[in-house]
Amino acid sequence: MQPRQALIALHAGALLFGLAGIFGKLAQATPWVIVCTRAGFAVLALATFMGLVRAEPWRRPRRGEAAQLGLAGLLLAAHWVAFFQAIKVGGVAIGTLGFCSFPAFTVVLEALLFREQLRRAELLQILAVTLGLALVTPGTGSATGAMAGLLWGVLSGLLFALLALLNRARSPGIGPVQAALCQNAVVALALLPPALPEAGSLRALDWLWLGLLGVLCTGLAHGLFVASLRVIKARTAAVVFALEPVYGIAFAWWVFAEQPTGLMLAGGVLIIAATLLPALER
Whole-prediction pTM value? Predict the structure, then answer.
């Protein structure tokens, strides 16, 4: 893959990740069903990617690695359920911006768990996310659903930060695509009991949205991200993936007429800028 192709693949991956909230809202299903089917389709897509691209060898996880992958899968399931609950009750823009608080959570938890000193850029990142969330927070006269959506989104950001830290401690012997496949398999199995009774009532159109969510926004997006990192620097990838919420909010504006307010846009700019600070510092 040439650098230009890798950059295009990276932008395509960010776009597909940003569409996750759109497909989740289009599907008339509970978060349990959405996450379970998304994970199931993602497993198929990631397995196909591993078989066709052969970017990394499959290695049988040891007992400790299997336990770690299982815990990561449960965290991923909880994160996705919280995220799609945020989308359902608060809208794509509110839920996505709430989730984008995860860099601040990651910085704080990293400092606490790994005893790492906070740098100036990281302190600015925490401040920017806090101010951004304050601007995004609906006023007292706003619908309660928007406030609930923001809280669910922030919870999804906290859970994603915990997942990121757990993946940081993951054994390097397990490749990123295999780890994603195993974690998605855990998600699908864990949520199958509550999701199965409702799956029979899904419309054909709902299966289409959920299939696109799992194959495009999870399997293909992750594959593009991993493939591009073989050519693109991690710093560049971080900058490109900061556009993920921009894509999501723009499509929500177009598809659902979820027009953001001025304060929401200002808060969103602060939150998105916060994700760029560490990359720009290096």
Answer: 0.86
